[in-house]
């Protein structure tokens, strides 16, 4: 369990470091949300 938590923290740190700014994080999260939405729309049809 501890390894999983450490891995999650490291992954989050790397993802945050890659974004450079808060607006970059917002754009990344928005793009991820749109990808999930479009995937679910395709799965429905």
UniProtKB/TrEMBL annotation:
Signal peptide: 1-17
Taxonomic superkingdom: Bacteria
InterPro entries in alphabetical order: Entericidin
Keywords: Cell membrane, Lipoprotein, Membrane, Palmitate, Signal
Protein family: Belongs to the EcnA/EcnB lipoprotein family.
Protein name according to UniProt: Entericidin A/B family lipoprotein
The species this protein was found in: Brevundimonas guildfordensis
Lineage of the organism: Bacteria, Pseudomonadati, Pseudomonadota, Alphaproteobacteria, Caulobacterales
